[in-house]
Every structure is written in C-alpha cells, then in structure tokens.
Design a protein that fits this description.
Elements lengths: L1 E7 L4 E9 L4 E6 L8 E4 L4 E4 L1 H6 L1 H29 L1 H4 L3 H13 L2
Antiparallel strand pairs: 1-2, 1-5, 2-3, 3-4
Length: 111
C-alpha cells in the first residue's frame, strides 16, 4: 500500500491517493476538482498514474505543479481564516488577497 499523487498523461497533478494497491489499481482517491467528497475508495484508470512526492520533486516541472497544488489546497481549506486575517491587515495589502495568501503560505511552508 502506498500514498502519492494522481498524475494524468499530460503531467497535471489531479489529486491525491492513499492506501493504494498498484497491482489492483485501487485506493482511496481525492480528485482536487471535486474534493468536497474527500477520499473515496475507487479504481484508478490507465489514463492516470500514481507518483510519490519524492518522484514528483525529482522532476523540476512537476515539482512546480506540486507546489501550486499544495498552495491551492491550503488556501481552499483555510480561506475563512485567511480572509479574516487579510481584512485585519488590509491597509498593508490594498485589495490583494492572493498576494497576502501566497506570502503567508511561503512563510509557513517554504524554507
């Protein structure tokens, strides 16, 4: 059983998978486009592959996509708190919630 990311044939990261069995191509999958359902036990078709985070980070192009995916997920899950913080600090950011969120993400996750 393994964990990783679902990547399509075009190199786009489509979701996450956990408890994945590579022989049966079954596992708990969460597609980012419909993540309101959370993880659902499903079959992963041949159009997709499962890659570990280490494998993705070894590819410069995929590493950039993974960083963006992590940022979008983090922002989506924390949007209420981020908006509240942004409104308190608004004079410094002048109508740029996206910049505020990216800078906060970088301070928290980027070393």
């Amino acid at each position: 059983m393994q964990e990783g990311y679902v990547v399509d044939s075009g190199g786009k990261i489509r979701g996450e998978v956990r408890r994945y069995n590579p022989y049966a191509r079954l596992g708990e999958i969460m597609l980012y486009e419909i993540d309101s359902f959370g993880f659902v036990y499903s079959y992963i078709s041949g159009n997709y592959c499962v890659m570990s985070e280490e494998d993705i980070l070894a590819d410069r192009h995929l590493a950039k996509r993974l960083r963006e995916v992590k940022y979008q997920c983090w922002k989506r899950k924390n949007i209420l708190e981020l908006t509240e913080q942004y409104e308190k600090e608004n004079p410094a950011y002048k109508d740029d919630l996206e910049r505020f969120c990216r800078e906060k993400f970088d301070r928290i996750f980027v070393r």
